[in-house]
Write a structure and sequence with these properties.
Four copies of one chain form a homotetramer. The first copy, chain A, is an alpha/beta fold. The first copy, chain A, has two domains: 2-63, 2-Layer Sandwich (Alpha-Beta Plaits); 83-334, Alpha-Beta Barrel (TIM Barrel), CATH 3.20.20. Helix content of chain A is 35%, strand content 18%. The first copy, chain A, has eleven helices and 14 strands. Chain A has helices at residues 11-23, 51-54, 107-119, 144-157, 171-177, 191-197, 214-226, 254-261, 270-274, 277-290, 316-334; strands at 2-5, 27-32, 37-42, 59-63, 83-85, 88-90, 96-100, 124-126, 160-164, 180-183, 204-207, 232-236, 266-268, 294-298. An eight-stranded parallel β-barrel of chain A has the order 7-8-9-10-11-12-13-14, surrounded by seven helices. A four-stranded antiparallel beta sheet of chain A has the order 2-3-1-4. The first copy, chain A, has a two-stranded antiparallel sheet with strand order 5-6. In chain A, strand 11 (204-207), helix 7 (214-226) and strand 12 form a beta-alpha-beta unit. In chain A, helix 6 (191-197) packs across helix 7. The relative contact order of chain A is 0.12. Chains in contact: A-B, A-C, A-D, B-C, B-D, C-D. The interface between A and B is large, with 48 and 48 residues.
């Protein structure tokens, strides 16, 4: 942590700050510049609060040096984490595709969709049983019945299941059915849910909140990791900006940024990220080219009849085309340099 | 709902859309323009989904006409709602001030602060017992012990209590102590929590999420209202923008916008909204001048030692000055026109 | 400037960076922490570029300590700057109100409006002769004829004139007519225009770009100041955010933030800032309460017929009401503390 | 244009609006819904202003139906526009790569860089002679001397030249040297510059402003097209968001969105878009996969010594690697479906 003193600070003001640092059992290191003095605080700054110094007289600024997260950082663990979901390895260098409907609607709908996406080459099946909806008048999911239908689809197709859990009290229930438990964008900051999931014994898909910085996103992962759950898969799904032609702004820059700063795998959800079925295909190709470890794609046999999010769902034919194209991009970027 | 057909749509394409509208038991109304045909859908559009039409061939756009919320709208209820919190009337034309520390830290801290804010003229006491923190390594609140200390402070000072509830499973516990239950910005979209609070029998302070539009904010209020809880107080606390000199961007434009569209009272939290103690006073004056029904202010006897959010907390002296100044602004804007 | 070395940096890596610092004629100051070494660079960092260090091996981060602006800072000049515009003192503690139509449309329109705003108490007359419009098919202003009509209105009413200049080649022409030359939000980064205005001998009203940070805004002021023009008035007029109920998001937080960091006066334009005539009045009161030195308000005799921006223009009656209310707020916040 | 009447509007209020529509020589078309009446305005809405109706009594909302741009729309011209720049065809289905330094610094620097990028396979050379810089103390470009050096590099390498023009008064000068005239992001709204370029007889590279919506971006293109210049190449270069790990947020979603709505070619500048050399390569691959017609890449022989933007410049080796990888992605996405 670096403390920048005001240009008007006297030696007495500086001594006061140094005294405070030493009271906290840390060491201060002074550097007198042309215009002002700066003070380095030596010790673990993750245990400090900025305001312990920023509110002292004639302190102009307090600048953290370390990242706030530790276990999620690539500095802590240099090799990539690979997360095993029902035998599917996310982050092992091969693209993982998770596909399925936004909501589980009926036995026929989920079984049909599961067969379609498996036949097109998907690795895991997604489907929502508990749905966080903006409107209280909208369909809120089938609940446990939806989980049972997902389990049935797993039996029929062999695909592992990805589904959302919305509250800590439901973690045990959802974990009995799911292979990968999803934390939705609206719950990325739900610390009680994260704590409950840190001990659940199954991997977690953590979606980025609409307005989360990278630091905040990795701090949510840190809740899971520090509680003992190392099976964390990150997911970019769009941020809130001024842009009007997409429902959210899918931020692919996050993918290579995460690769530099963290060891955790990251996948991309272009369905929610764009909110438009006609942008899902090109943005899926782009996500793979940016280095994503996987994709999460909404597919529905009849999008116009979907109970939720039909505008961003692909038809079976569009999904088959998508699989074809993203596999071609995957091959292109993993080909040996001399190819 | 308005359906805009593509300029390339044939009469057959238009008939197809009209047929679909009629299948759903609604009426279609055609308007042929110079370049394209538009179709009005007559009936309650809140029961429709855009994609039921937007995915039909040669439909270019689907434009909703009605607001998605109903019970929260001023159209539904023209007179202002006044919410009674332990005898304090929020929204009755008089400014309500809620003040206290970010977190309850100890008996001495909360009692001292409660006396300070009461003596300076605050109407209600705030204090967090359950804290949603970005870092798993940060102080997470005293839990039920914090609630007990708040109740003790109420006994000592007579001030009603405002405190946050983070999960549906804790609603009953928090409701035993609190006079106004706060839904934090991170939980504005937590539909299970909102549903639990809709039947709790006590009023709710609903904070706007960092990235919530006004429609989304009022839809969260609609969850409470449609579940039977009419005691809803809205709170603006800053949005996420590119701006760097404030932790969030306090968006005072929301205050008069809510007054036009809704009957619910709205207060402003400039402490979280700016994240800087040196901006709290001018932005509090501005909030009152914009028409806010109240303020929520963080006060701490020793901000530099606060367990959380010290950088945005006022000292007792600063709070007394704030009360003096906001009361002057309140008088100025409520004086009769001829004064 | 602070250089943060990677935790993996060897003493050799550190020596390499120090050598580079010394080559540039500056001094390095080392601070060895528990996890990593940081290096303070002693000397005027405004002359350095981050990449001179950030691209060296095992440098993790380069953190500037000084603000990028100098002449615009309150550190450089502690007392408030007061700008004289045709005898009106902006920044002297009294509220200045600039009012008039978006565009000059005709002799009758500008003379009528000038008389209305003068009679209601405005200090200066605004009106656009050169209009930067989003659409090539929209009215682009009367050009020099508009300037002549503004001068006529000045003769008739005694009000000084504020009008926009869009290009360096037109600075001399506009300066012959205007008392305060406006740089529009779209031109805040137009460095050629800023340079031309720095020698014009008349004060400049510098509007904040939709997406400008405070640093960028003050750097544009620095262009004017460093070129010798000390008559700079800043103007907040709304930023681009995700918010949908206002055309822009008027960011009043800027007002007290500028007051802390700069000596320049700052006014607020709630007409462009909100884009809605029904929000102009409350946000004007709020701007004054936040500490703004002035307001800039669009007024039109018949807003529905305005050639541009009618939706945000006030009628004469609304403007008279606004003057009444903002004066009341001004009195409230400038009353002596014991009042 | 659709006019939505308030639920409280009487038949008289509706008649008043209809009268107004008819006064303007247009036709009104009424649709009475369950809750309110809506009125369709039949005629060319591009000639109307919203406020002509929105300010009438009991009008609740006015909704435009048509896009504000016409010549830039795919509806106006269905086939892709191909822009010829010194024999290089942008938009013909083959990827175009523009590369070179941020600023022209010296004869040696530009000639060296030109040879490097040509040898690696670039199609056109970029280099700035006029630089819009945030700081008045930063290097502002070599001016016409820079243009001469670019022409020399063209002679030596055969590469056509792309360079920025900052003001209408300099259009003729820059056009004597450049093959493709660049309008920088800060000038996207500079209507005088756009008008001057609409008659220049050479193609224009139009960069998206940091905060421009797609409508605004295409309206700037409309200035060029409506003035007679059909050689318009669009360029995405990052938007301003809350995100902190990139200097801007490169918004690749724009690429397929433009392809749907417009016939103009679009390229991507990941150097400015991310501001980080270590993200340029993956985001270049992603841009190509998203369907971009070209890339614009900053390359410098010694990035740490660059006069400007060194942090985002690639070394010659990194650029060669980039060319290798983006060509592989290009092949992958253009391979026949059965491959």
């Amino acid at each position: 942590m670096i403390i920048v003193m005001s240009a008007r600070a006297t030696p007495e003001d500086v001594r006061h700050v140094v005294g405070r640092i030493e009271e906290l059992g840390l060491k201060a290191h002074l550097s007198k510049g042309v215009e002002r003095t700066i003070i380095g605080v030596i010790g673990d700054e993750r245990l400090l609060k900025k305001e312990q110094f920023s509110l002292l007289p004639l302190v102009e600024d307090v600048i953290p040096i370390l990242k706030p997260y530790k276990l999620a950082s690539r500095e802590f663990k240099r090799e990539n984490t690979v997360v095993d979901v029902a035998g599917v390895k996310i982050g092992d260098g091969r693209l993982t595709v998770i596909a399925g409907p936004c909501s589980v609607e009926s036995e026929e709908q989920i079984l049909t969709t599961a067969r379609i996406v498996r036949n097109a080459g998907a690795d895991l099946l997604r489907g929502g049983a508990y749905k966080p909806r903006t409107s209280p008048y909208a369909f809120q999911g089938l609940g446990e019945e939806g989980l049972r239908l997902l389990a049935l689809a797993r039996e029929e197709t062999g695909l592992g299941i990805v589904t959302e859990v919305m509250e800590s009290s439901e973690v045990d229930l959802v974990a009995r059915y799911a292979d990968l438990l999803q934390v939705g964008a609206r719950n990325m900051h739900n610390t009680k849910l994260l704590r409950a999931l840190s001990g659940v014994g199954k991997p977690v898909l953590l979606k980025r909140n609409f307005s989360a910085t990278l630091n905040e996103f990795l701090m949510s992962a840190e809740y899971l990791l520090s509680g003992g759950n190392t099976g964390v898969v990150l997911c970019e799904r769009g941020i809130r900006t001024f842009v009007e032609y997409t429902r959210n702004t899918l931020d692919l820059n996050l993918v290579p940024a995460v690769k530099l700063l963290s060891h955790l795998p990251i996948i991309v959800d272009p369905s929610h990220g764009t909110g438009r079925h006609d942008l899902v295909l090109p943005m899926s190709r782009a996500a793979v080219a940016a280095g994503a470890d996987g994709l999460m794609i909404e597919v529905h046999p009849h999008p116009a009849d979907a109970f939720s999010d039909g505008e961003q769902s692909l038809t079976p034919d569009m999904f088959a085309q998508l699989m074809h194209e993203v596999k071609a991009v995957e091959r292109a970027i993993t080909a040996p340099a001399g190819a």
